[in-house]
From TrEMBL:
Cell compartments where the protein resides: Membrane
Family: Belongs to the major facilitator superfamily. Sugar transporter (TC 2.A.1.1) family.
Membrane topology classification: Multi-pass membrane protein
Top-rank taxon, per record: Eukaryota
Protein name: Major facilitator superfamily (MFS) profile domain-containing protein
SUPFAM superfamilies according to UniProt: MFS general substrate transporter (SSF103473)
InterPro entries, A to Z: MFS_dom, MFS_sugar_transport-like, MFS_trans_sf, Myo-inositol_Transporter, Sugar/inositol_transpt, Sugar_transporter_CS
Transmembrane stretches, start-end: 30-55, 67-87, 99-117, 123-145, 157-179, 185-207, 251-274, 286-308, 320-337
Key words, A-Z: Membrane, Transmembrane, Transmembrane helix, Transport
Keyword Transmembrane in record: yes
Length: 411
């Protein structure tokens, strides 16, 4: 409800949602079916972090180029930007249901392309398609849920999309762990994400269109009033909306929240969590993935807390509290990274040269294909050797120094 231009959430216990959906399970079916779009988003966010560890093993170009690694990771977000931009138009033009179905098809095609990719550029193309599907469904799934939910429990039901997003991230790490020993590893990891998209497609086929969208399409008078006040084309509608002070204020608030959410940095942590864990000293891919489950698990737990509290304490209060927590922990994370970098052991070129180049690392000398020696190999060797910053990624000419057994790799 809105009083004096300020939104006030209904003080409804989360148990009300449980009571209503228990009596009318069809409501929960609607929310869960559409909410699978959040699961797709979350799964794709988390799965690439583990898959990337194994993609680097199959493609030397990816292993040697951090730029190519970043392109593979970020192209999904790039595709999502485009998908979200066209998703709004498609949603208004063809309906929420059809747009979600279309996004599922695009997502499935992208997942299959990634799974069979013979080269890194094919993975990038598949990531773009998956991003398109993610972008389309990320704005249509919560919209569909909100327009088909009872007002009293709308906040809790829309939160299901957010919960499934974080659960999808947690699930992706579990699936990554399951395929660490399977032939094809990363191909299975990326290909499995087609299954929830297929499930959503099948479920949505049997669900109705959003009643609000149908009402707008069937009511000629309402449509004429909207066109008279906002115009027929998109530009005119946008100008008309911006001229309305209430709409403009809501738009500014919504954009600010979305920008703040994306700039929080959680996606970076999710995309590179296993890599960060590896450089913390846990070189094993499976161990890195297992430890990364802590991050995704806490993320999912936070979504559950949100579902329990959103209708009781209100959207604004929950948002302020969460943003304070995000800022505090990001500052703590930055301090930890900075301290780790500052207190890394000092490397002495003089000491390194006294041992001779690459003649004191037995693990390196015994490696059959030592031209492919990587940072992870150094961590696995645990011989306390480090590369000088002046000669980063120089496999055959690593100036090394003997440090104590607690030394860290610093490149």
């Amino acid at each position: 409800m809105v009083e004096a231009g300020v939104a006030s959430a209904d003080q409804v216990e989360f148990t009300e949602c449980w009571k209503v959906t228990w009596k009318t399970p069809y409501i929960m079916r609607l929310a869960l079916s559409a909410g699978l779009g959040g699961l797709l988003f979350g799964y794709d966010t988390g799965v690439i972090s583990g898959a990337l560890l194994y993609i680097k093993d199959d493609f030397d170009g990816v292993e040697k180029s951090t730029i190519l690694q970043e392109v593979i990771v970020s192209m999904c977000v790039g595709g999502a930007i485009i998908g979200a931009a066209i998703g709004g138009y498609l949603s208004d033009r063809f309906g929420r249901k059809k747009t979600i179905l279309a996004s599922d098809i695009v997502f499935i095609i992208g997942a299959i392309i990634m799974a069979v990719a013979p080269a890194p550029w094919v993975i990038v193309f598949g990531r773009v398609l998956v991003g398109l599907g993610v972008g389309m469904t990320s704005m249509n799934s919560p919209l569909y849920i909100s327009e088909t939910s009872p007002a009293k429990i709308r906040g809790a039901l829309v939160s299901i999309n957010g919960f499934l997003l974080t659960f999808g991230q947690f699930l992706s790490y579990l699936i990554n762990l399951a395929f660490t020993k399977a032939p094809g590893t990363w191909r299975w990891m990326l290909g499995v994400c087609a299954l929830p998209a297929l499930l959503q497609f099948m479920l949505m086929l049997w669900l109705p269109e959003s009643p609000r969208w149908l009402y707008r399409e069937e009511s000629v008078e309402v449509e004429k009033e909207m066109e008279a006040s906002t115009g027929k084309d998109t530009i005119s509608k946008l100008k008309g909306a911006l001229n309305d002070p209430v709409v403009r204020r809501g738009l500014y608030a919504g954009i600010t929240v979305q920008v703040a959410q994306q700039f929080a940095g959680i996606n970076t942590v999710m995309y590179y969590a296993p890599t960060i864990v590896q450089f913390a000293g846990f070189a094993s891919k499976s161990v890195a993935l297992a430890l990364s489950l802590v991050t995704t698990g806490l993320n999912a737990f936070g979504s559950i807390l949100s579902m329990l509290c959103v209708d009781r304490f209100g959207r604004r209060r929950m948002m302020i509290i969460s943003m304070i927590g995000i800022i505090s922990f990001l500052v703590a994370l930055a301090i930890v990274f900075q301290q780790a970098s500052t207190h890394a052991p000092t490397l002495s070129p003089v000491d390194s040269q006294s041992f001779g180049r690459n003649f004191t690392c037995q693990s390196y000398l015994s490696k059959v294909e030592n031209t492919k020696w990587t940072c992870m190999d150094c961590l696995k060797a645990k011989c306390a050797f480090c590369a000088n910053r002046a000669n980063e990624v120089s496999s055959l000419n690593l100036p090394v120094t003997w440090l104590n057994s607690n030394a860290k790799y610093d490149s």
